[in-house]
Amino acid sequence: MAKKSHQENNDNLIAQNKKARHDYFVTDTVEAGLVLTGTEIKSVRAHRVNLKDGFAQVRNGEVWLMNVHISEYDNGTYFNQNPLRNRKLLLHKKEINKLGGALQNKGVTLIPLKMYIKRGYAKVLLGLAKGKHQYDKREAIKRREQNREIERVMKHY
C-alpha cells in the first residue's frame, strides 16, 4: 500500500492519538470516511472525541472502528447514541482487501491516528501498526533526550 499525503488543516483536526506512535511502529496509513448519526457528528464538531484506546477490524468485507469514545451530544434527545458503539468506516473494496491481508500477519493491528473534518465529512486516518516492545520505547525516549541536549548545546554556539 502506498503512502498517501494527508493535507488537512490543523483547524479541522478534531482528535489525535498522540500515544499511538509511542506504542506502535506505524508502517502505512490510509484515510477512511466515518458513518455517524446526526448527534454524533455534532459532538465530533465540538471536539468531544477520544481515540486513545481505539482500533479497527475487518469483518465480512467491512471495516469497523471500535472502542472510540464520541461523547453524547449535550442538546440531544433520545437520538443520542452509545458513546462507545462500533462505527462503520468507508473504504474502497481494494483498500479493504489490502488491509485484511496485512492484518493476517502476527502482531499487526489497525489503529486510528487522527480524526478530522475534510470538506464537511468526518475522516479518520488509520495506521497499520506493529506493537513496540518496552526496550524500543526506552530507546526512542533516550534518542529524543539526546537530540534535545544536542540542540541545547548548539543553541549557545
What do you see in this structure?
By secondary structure, the chain is of the alpha+beta class. The protein contains four helices and nine strands.
State the gist of this model.
With 157 residues, this protein is an alpha+beta fold. It has four helices and nine strands, in the order βαβαβββββαββα.
Topology of helices and strands:
Layout: E1 13-16, H1 20-23, E2 24-34, H2 38-45, E3 49-50, E4 55-59, E5 62-66, E6 69-70, E7 87-90, H3 93-102, E8 108-118, E9 121-131, H4 134-156
Antiparallel strand pairs: 1-8, 2-7, 2-9, 3-6, 4-5, 5-7, 8-9
Structural descriptors:
157 residues, single chain, seven-stranded antiparallel β-sheet, two-stranded antiparallel sheet, alpha+beta
Give, in order, the helices and strands.
EHEHEEEEEHEEH
Structural class: alpha+beta
Oligomer: single chain
Coarse shape? globular
The whole-angstrom Rg is: 18 Å
How many DSSP-defined strands? 9
Structure annotation, total helices: 4
Task: Return residue spans where pLDDT drops below 50 for at least 5 consecutive residues.
Answer: none
Q: Main sheet?
A: 7 strands, antiparallel
In helices, the fraction of residues equals: 25-40%
Give the strand order, joined by hyphens, for the main sheet: 1-8-9-2-7-5-4
Mean pLDDT figure: 81
Note the beta-strand portion: 35-45%
Distance between termini?
Answer: 44 Å
